[in-house]
Amino acid sequence: MPDMTEVRKTRSHGERLSGVCRWTLAVLACLWLAWCCAIGPLYWYNVGLDGFGWTNMLILALSFAVFFAIVVGLVRFGLGRHVLPRYFIRRHERLREEVEGTPTTILGILLKHVHHAAYSRPGRAVHAVIIWIGRKLIRCTDCWWKLMLVFVIGWLWIPTTLLAAYGADIRSQIREFSWAWNQWTGLKQPYIGFFSFVPMDIYPTAHYMWPANPTYLTDQHNIVLTVFYGAVAMISRYFTDSNDAGIVVLAALQWLFAAFCCAATANRFFNLPWRRLGVGSFDFSHPERHDCWIQRDFMHPEAGMVARPSRLRAGAKTRFAVLLFFMVCPLAVFSTISLTKSPLFAFAFVWWFGVWYELHMTHIKALPTINGKPTRLRKRSMLAFFMSSVVMLISAKYAWYIIALALILALLNDRKRWKTYLVTLLLPTVIIHGGIVFLADSGAIISGDPIESRGIQLQQIARVAKYNPQGIPEDAAKKLEPVFNLDQMADAYYQQDADPVKSSGIQSKKVSYKWRTVTKEDMENFNKAWWEIVKANPVIALDAFFAECFGYFDVADLPYVSMDYYVNNDYVQEDNDWIHLYNHEWRDKVAGFAKKWGKIPVLGWLTHGNLYVTLTLLIGAAEVVLRRWRSLSWHLPLLLLMGVMITAPANNFERHMLPVVLVFGFLCLQFWRESRRQRHAAVSVGS
């Protein structure tokens, strides 16, 4: 028999090592956020890391202290301890004792009057009204269709007064489909040629990727959306001689989809509808797990258990806060009618995230049963999980990476429900992603140019070409010569956006990317040339990297492109047939109000996506420290989305942050619930 003392020592050493590793990850997350805040002012004034000084060091130290304090507070809250230090608790107790007795300080006298006012007749009346409103709010949001009505009514002003919001993407998609339709109807059009300029040249897409048989559909903006948007616009042109009616219809459909997704997910987080069905059986060996359960019918035990609503459902204040965010925050409001792929993906992700919460809450460890069998996912939730995965896959190319990661984590964490995950995650991925790959390989469509995913590398090369052209090794310049014009790259370089370097756009542009003549063999030397340049210019390369991504994690950085851009840009306000004639000035006022709000220090942070990205990362760090591995298993896609932001072609592009922003309130609610459960478990063990 091993010595129990040695076993305890080994266990304590392992626990200490595990704690050190978990806190190290939390510290690294705080350091990354603090670093982005510290270097932000450098890139605002286009200085670079060479200008890093004591002021930036002070910002780094203060930011780290704030972020780490938030993580510590979250961990203490999660463990059921007091969030504030003991000193503030003692001061609060002393002040309360003084108020109950004879107050001697100005604050004590003021609080005494407030205390008496609260218990006066008017105070009791106000309190009763607040309680009544709270109960009515809970009753008006106790099922998905009522929540759907709330979102529809609250958002009704958006499509009726703004009609639609869009940018260049949907115009390119409509143009692609129109060229493809002309080809299908027998109209001859230019294809590959030096003097030809077709939709695939706008992005651009390298000519070596074009099949020999002419085709004008690409997966640049997701082929399914391109066909759907283009078909609706074509029908609109047939009946109205304009794309505008079709664009308005598409915006209205997305608005309805957004309301449905938010309502379905809010219902799952607010009301936990699966518990109404009494799923699961009572496990008498673990009564502490069921402090929120009551028997459905005491005369008939076989009827099972049902949840006690007052202990499980979200309260009125929580519902009000979440709904207020969706109704007021410009990020959510403008996204409902913004016809670009990111908002559609974001609302589908919200729907998907809600089903994950149901899976998390019906996990066998969260909802144990007597026979040891897992709780089956409801049929409507199975359909929701499948359809949300489909919409994610047709709206964003990186969706299949997120779904693949979620599938792997789910099979590791919830193996007994493996069939559910294969049907709802693997099957749509095989159908949608596999189908698109097949269409590209068969030459039916043109796949997106891989240069789109090399934004960081392009920015690093272009920054070196701009600020230190002599530092480019001769061998690297020779390898890049068939792919890029270095002089044009230097001239087109803009630290916030990699699109100019990629020669993207229909306007007059610098031809830095030689998409007409580059070959697949030429691209094989690209990574080698890039690495040689980075090794020769490490500081400039780091500047290019941080300048393109720091804004996603710097709460003080203003967005490069905010969501209000899609409401009143030139495409909406000028370059269309009749949309610009409808409430032209009202669009400017709405977008201007949102922009002014966003520029207000601290208060304006509430309208910026990077605040919610930062807080989400801190909550994730706290979950690591608290060892909430099951929660982390379905929160890790949020971290993967942050990786997508870093590799995105532009810095602080708010539409890339929408999925994290829209689920943030639900994430906070779930963290609070798990903390409360852990606190109750600690109290029951202590008693």
- In round numbers, the mean pLDDT is 87
Number of helical stretches of at least 4 residues: 29
Q: In order across it, which strands form the biggest sheet?
A: 1-2
Rg estimate, integer Å: 28 Å
Write down the overall geometry: globular
Poorly predicted ranges (pLDDT <50, ≥5 residues)?
277-292
Roughly how many Å apart are the termini? 33 Å
Helical coverage, percent range: 55-70%
Topology:
Elements: H1 4-44, H2 54-78, H3 86-100, H4 106-118, H5 121-140, H6 144-154, H7 157-162, H8 168-184, H9 223-240, H10 244-271, E1 293-295, E2 305-307, H11 309-312, H12 316-328, H13 330-335, H14 341-361, H15 379-395, H16 399-413, H17 418-442, H18 455-467, H19 474-480, H20 486-492, H21 520-523, H22 526-536, H23 538-549, H24 565-568, H25 570-573, H26 584-598, H27 609-626, H28 629-647, H29 658-686
Antiparallel strand pairs: 1-2
In short:
This is Membrane protein. With 687 residues, this protein is mainly alpha-helical.
Tell me about this structure.
- The protein is mostly helical.
- Among the domains are: 4-83 and 608-686, no CATH class; 90-143, no CATH class.
- Helix content is 64%, strand content 1%.
- A two-stranded antiparallel ribbon has the order 1-2.
- The chain starts with a helix and ends with a helix.
